[in-house]
Protein 1
Amino acid sequence: MKNILCYGDSNTWGWTPVSGERYPLHVRWTGIMQKNLGGEYHVIEDGMNGRTTCYDDPTWPFHNGFKSIYASLETHYPLDLVIVMLGSNDAKRHICATPYASACGMENIVRVIRSGMYGNGKKDPEILIVSPILIGEDIDRTCSFGEMSAPFSRLLSKELGRVAREQGTFFMDASLYAEPSKEDCLHMTPEGHAALAEAMTEKVREILS
């Protein structure tokens, strides 16, 4: 069995745009991917609402993705593949990150995954960096996101793609397959989860075949 860790934020956790509740497992992209891949794969879902790449959020403690990746890897190894989809929460007004800085945070996460401790056997896990879906232009400016959040999300893919090339990891852009919902301009609809799951399934098979 091949173990796949999906490390992300609320769009991995399965936040519903309307109610803020959690989509059932069979609706979430991780659950659909597990069904598609079958019993030879174990998809491990580690999504946390509000998780950043590498930033401490003063309004929401313990959501620094770089700091918590150690515990996640330690808990779930041995791993064959780690999928990391983070960056949207770096666009919050009170975090004030840049796409380049977020990509640097992703690069540090990659280095931790490749520390020689978490692979299946003597090999480090493969890594798939996924640039998140876009943030909608009409996102509620009264929430944590602001006028620069949508432009931030449109520049992030280029920076994360650069990190993937430089570090020799695999790369996907989730915005090519799913869009933010019209309700909150941030989270995926069930249709978005399904479309992303199909693309992820194909990519995972390509990586681990």
Protein 2
Amino acid sequence: MILDSQAARGRSLVDVLREAAAHGVRLFQYRDKLSPSIEAYRAALKLRDAAAEAGATFLINDRCDLALAVEADGVHLGQEDLPLPKARGLLGPGKIIGISTHQPAQVKEATEGGADYLGFGPIFPTNTKPDHTAVVGLEGLRQVRPLTHLPIFAIGGVTLDTVAMTIQAGADGVAVVSAVATASDVGRMVRDLLAQIG
């Protein structure tokens, strides 16, 4: 689950994390592209502590400095962020590094470069990230699945109605933002999503 305060619409991200974790989410990524560094740091500390209490893995989106500062479990990097070898040098071999990918060449490069997992998408149109790259669709996911042995998390517009077909197309898991953060019952939405993933 991606924790983004803009997508949460005023809900406490710590509360969302705790409820989602209580119902089965085990991997969280904190994404904050707007707040000043000190605010992002304070929020990340609270989220890291909540994730640790829940026995969940906690990653930081984009920023190796913030991941190091709060002792997160790792970082998720986009194509415009630090190169994978530089990030590995900063974080060390024990941290998780995921890479956002959108095309076959990026999937191959991240796999060969030693990423721990891949995000791939956007699978469907999404309002959570309005400046996203072109939609790759389920067919794009099917095409890259044979190119990597790494776990692929499909991202971009994945909902309860589309999660099963996304897994069938080759994803090992899905990254969701608003599907959970805006649900009237976070716990129930998490359970329903996990049931579709199988």
Protein 3
Amino acid sequence: MQMASLKGILTRIVRQFKLTYVLHNILHPSKLQHNRKLYKKYGVKRSIYQSLGNQNFKDQAKDIPWLDRPNAIESLKNHPQYASFSPVIQQQLNQFVTDGYMIIPGFFSTEEVEQANKDIDTLLQSNKVGFHYTGRKIMQSYKHSPVINDTFFRRKELTDLLSFIIGKPVIPFQTINFLQGSEQRAHSDSIHMTTQPLGYLIACWIALENITDQNGPVVYYPGSHTLPYLMTPDYNSGNTSLTIGAQSNTRYEDTIDELIREKNLQPSVFHAQPGDLLIWHANLLHGGSAIHQEGATRKSLVAHYFCEDVICYHEISQRPALFDAEVSQKLPQK
């Protein structure tokens, strides 16, 4: 346990230096080549290996996702594909526009959920996956589990729906498995996984067991997706030209807490059954509530998707997103 804590401390120290990421980028050129075309399109005057943040975009792109536009409800109902969805999905699509999220009960079967949990247990026991330096997250299990990759992460029924919602084809980016609740403070995914133009990210949260008040359910703030995007220039991040502020993420979350109080945003809690699906907007404020039962698990799978033809980066850590080889080969090159 002490070794794990020491590793976490050292990792946080190393991650404060932008040069760390630049060197990492240089060692993985194939995962960044697609940005040459995109940087030219969006007027970014930087090497694809350099750090990248909101401050590097001289002019913010005017394009926004179609369901973020003023006439979104009308456009949604007039879309020829809208009528093909069930009444339940239609209602949830309308809710996504107004509240920034949608819920589809039982999207995945009990058998699929059981197999996913078995795969995670097996992968942990064989050391093919492990916990992120935070001690809560299991990153990129889809690379080792065909069930998680094919049945959950890249399921065509799901990716087609996500592409419809966001208005561009989605690119599967990452998976995160949890065995326990994250207890993470409220945040928008767009501070961690950012796009230019803004808004072209979408996330899924899948329950892999019963989720109650006892095991730390997801908490989210309906309607918060309509607030302005909060980027590092908008709060005291502590960033310099060479470093990332040591308390940047904490200060960001403090700012979000203040915003929630200022706007009197009211939380909702996602109580779920195994296989239930929660989809949320790139800018929806959400987090993990407290675990009230000691030792309780909260098995779940989170999947994030960027969109084609947009720049993808990480605002907190000021770095361009790296796409794995199987994705990069399909992206536009220089």
